[in-house]
Please model this.
Amino acid sequence: MKIGLYFGTYNPIHVGHLIIANHMAEFADLDQIWMVVTPHNPLKKKATLLDDHHRLQMVFLATEDYPKIKPSDIEFKLPQPNYTVITLAHLQEKYPTHEFSLIMGEDNLKTLHKWKNYEVILDNHDIYVYPRISDEPENVELKSHPKIHVIDAPIVEISSTFIRNSIKEGKNIQPLLPPKVWEYIDHNNFYKK
Model:
C-alpha cells in the first residue's frame, strides 16, 4: 500500500488541509493519506498551540468522512525533537509492506536540503509536492529529482495562523473549517484569548 504522509501541527486543521489531502488521495498514485499530527516540542513554549490530543481529535473529526484520509499520532510516541528521517525509519520498520511517501508544499521543498539526512529521505521515499505561493527562489535541481513529483493541486492560501487570529478577533470563519472542527473549537472556546 502506498501511503502519503502529510505532516502538520494542524492548529487547527482547516479546509485547505483537506483540499490538499483529498486531492493527493484522488489524483496522485497514493492509496491513503495519513495526516501526521506533529507533537508539541516540550522545549518550545507556544501559547497558541493546543495540546496534542485536541489537535489529533480535530484531525479525526475532519477526516472521518474521508475513507482514504487517516489521522496519525505516530510522532507522539517518538523521541523529541522529531526528525522526518527518524519517523520514516520507524514507520518502515512497523509497516514493512507499506511504501511511505512525503507530501509537502513547494515552500518546504525549497528548504529540504536543510533537513536532517535529507539525502536518505530522497534515496528511499517519493515526495509529492503541491504548489504554494512563495518568494523563496526555486530549487530547480531538487524539483527535477526523479523522486520528486510535483502535483497540479489547487493553490490554497488559508493558514491556521489566520484562523486563530480571526477567532481571537471575533470574526466568523466557519466556512474555512470542517463543521465538526468548528463545533469542537467553539464548544471548547479555543483561540479566543
About this structure: The mean pLDDT is 92.
